[in-house]
Amino acid sequence: MTVAVHLENVHKSYNSIPVVNDLSFTINAGEMFGLLGPNGAGKSTTIRMLTTLTKPTQGQIEVFGYDVVSQPILAKQCLGVVLQAISVDGDLTVWENMELHGRLHHIGNPGRQRLIEQWLEYVELGTRRNSLVKTLSGGMKRRLQIARALLHQPQILFLDEPTVGLDPQTRRRLWEIIRDLNKQGMTMLLTTHYMDEVEYLCDRIGIMDNGKLISLGTLQELRSTHGEGLVMKQVGERWEYVFFPTLEDANLYLNQQQDKTGMMVRPSNLEDIFVELTGRKLD
Ligand code: ADP
Hints:
Layout: E1 3-14, E2 17-28, E3 32-36, H1 43-50, E4 58-63, E5 66-67, H2 72-78, E6 79-82, H3 94-104, H4 111-122, H5 138-150, E7 156-160, H6 168-183, E8 187-192, H7 195-201, E9 204-209, E10 212-217, H8 219-226, E11 229-235, E12 238-244, H9 247-256, E13 263-267, H10 270-278
Parallel strand pairs: 3-8, 3-9, 6-7, 7-8
Antiparallel strand pairs: 1-2, 1-4, 4-5, 9-10, 11-12, 11-13
Helix pairs in contact: 3-4, 3-5, 4-5
């Protein structure tokens, strides 16, 4: 299996304050990998290091075998990135933004024109090619960012909080695009603080908190590790949660209770596991 991304004991500090703390994980080619964590967990910093925008303080990062510190140009040729802040130029048209990116990547014509056409159609912006970017909606700008990131035909796409601030319908449309690209073979790493996003999209999930990776696996693996069954008990205004290996075990426990008032059983989900691990809820 081809390794797409490999991080080994990666640290990043700003003014001696650790922001990413001993991060190690691997993403295989073709995988859709989600980094989940609250604001400030270090997700964006991790993407910035992976995409050569900032250097790790310590540790090693490879993207498709290229070291991001010693071989940044080769690494950059393999990757596309969609950052959180909208990074397209509002005073240029949709087409001009694509042209600029294509030229910066030395994509020659007629291939450049064909690729711009192809990706604008793919993200359904073909009819808006002559619109100034500042006249586009938030969802359209995000789709343009994706089209632009794909122009130089990268092997991996990094998406930093791709759907933040978008309405539910626009989010769903972006999810479809992301999923479809992955089905076509594109490796992807996305960061998010939305549980439903990782549950819907990702093959494997890494949970980050305070710069550390505190859990890693498929949703099913995380549920098996922490417990697939949950007994909830209302105590005053609060709910107390107890994990059990299976739903059956949780039901057995409930049935053994003489007073079942305020108690219920349900399968565990990612949010339960996140709260259990970090002691807090996401926004
Ligand atoms: P996330 O993407 O999970 O919300 P970030 O990687 O953006 O987290 O930030 C992690 C921490 O690093 C935050 O406390 C943030 O304030 C700090 N940080 C990020 N970038 C810088 C920077 N350029 N200088 C100083 N501190 C930074």
